């Protein structure tokens, strides 16, 4: 079994994840996190050209794996995620062309102070073999994911984030709908505001939360208890009590 004992810095985790991929005999293995102060760090075996393309296109906003796993606490097979939108279909086609694989499995991880991370593996195989592989290795993969994340946290030396500033009721509403998976246009339509106004709320919330991007703002809002995913259905049915008159 490959261990993380020798990893003493973040760069060393890259060598470790390559060995883990080879140990399990899959096409790719990736670890991606948002640190306590919003810095993003990743290591893995995807082709560099795909990683650069992913970042350049800001696919973090539409990636069904990121969006779907943010709402989960248990391992997720990629087939169980929502790939129905046109953007998701196009994204999946590009990912497969880049060699990511037709099967995937991700383990969501939540750490201190709003950290959100994913440990993912992918391969090219049929549904039956993939289901058998993930089922037989499920416990070991969960252990690997959390051990990997713990090692990353141990060698992380960045400062902790400043305390968050209070959000307005409308800023909370916007982040809640985004956490539910709504697109920006859907959020604007639901709240009866323009997309320009929506962007202003998002940017204001990001500033108050000390977040580097929208996803990190949502993650910090959840971790700080400012939005509660269990109450999302209530928001969808007509907003949160008392927030219709919130200061905008």
From TrEMBL:
Superkingdom: Bacteria
Any GO BP: regulation of DNA-templated transcription
Recorded hits in Gene3D superfamilies, A to Z, give:
Transcription factor LuxR-like, autoinducer-binding domain (3.30.450.80), Winged helix-like DNA-binding domain superfamily/Winged helix DNA-binding domain (1.10.10.10)
Q: Name one GO molecular function term.
A: DNA binding
Q: Which keywords describe this protein according to UniProt?
A: DNA-binding, Transcription, Transcription regulation
Pfam families linked to this entry: Autoind_bind, GerE
Q: Tell me the InterPro entries matching this sequence.
A: Sig_transdc_resp-reg_C-effctor, TF_LuxR_autoind-bd_dom, TF_LuxR_autoind-bd_dom_sf, Tscrpt_reg_LuxR_C, WH-like_DNA-bd_sf
Q: Per the record's keyword annotation, is Transcription included, yes or no?
A: yes
UniProt keyword annotation of Transcription present: yes
Q: Where is the HTH luxR-type domain?
A: 160-225
This chain's protein is named LuxR family transcriptional regulator
Query: What organism does this protein naturally occur in?
Result: Octadecabacter antarcticus 307
């Amino acid at each position: 079994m490959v261990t993380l004992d020798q990893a003493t810095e973040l760069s060393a985790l890259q060598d470790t994840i390559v060995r883990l991929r080879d140990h399990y005999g899959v096409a790719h293995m990736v670890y991606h996190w948002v640190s306590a102060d919003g810095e993003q760090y990743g290591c893995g075996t995807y082709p560099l050209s795909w990683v650069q393309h992913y970042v350049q296109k800001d696919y973090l906003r539409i990636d069904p794996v990121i969006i779907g796993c943010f709402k989960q606490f248990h391992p997720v097979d990629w087939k169980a995620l929502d790939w129905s939108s046109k953007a998701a279909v196009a994204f999946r086609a590009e990912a497969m062309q880049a060699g990511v694989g037709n099967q995937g499995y991700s383990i969501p991880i939540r750490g201190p102070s709003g950290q959100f991370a994913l440990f993912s593996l992918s391969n090219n195989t049929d549904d039956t073999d993939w289901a058998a592989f993930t089922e037989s290795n499920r416990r070991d993969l969960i252990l690997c994911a959390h051990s990997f994340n713990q090692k990353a946290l141990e060698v992380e030396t960045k400062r902790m984030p400043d305390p968050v500033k209070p959000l307005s009721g409308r800023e909370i509403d916007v982040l809640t709908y985004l956490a539910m998976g709504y697109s920006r246009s859907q959020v604007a339509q639901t709240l009866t505001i323009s997309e320009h106004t929506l962007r202003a709320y998002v940017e204001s919330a990001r500033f108050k939360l000390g977040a580097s991007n929208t996803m990190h703002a949502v993650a910090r809002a959840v971790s700080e208890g400012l939005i509660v995913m269990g109450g999302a259905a209530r928001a969808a049915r007509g907003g949160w009590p008392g927030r219709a008159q919130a200061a905008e």
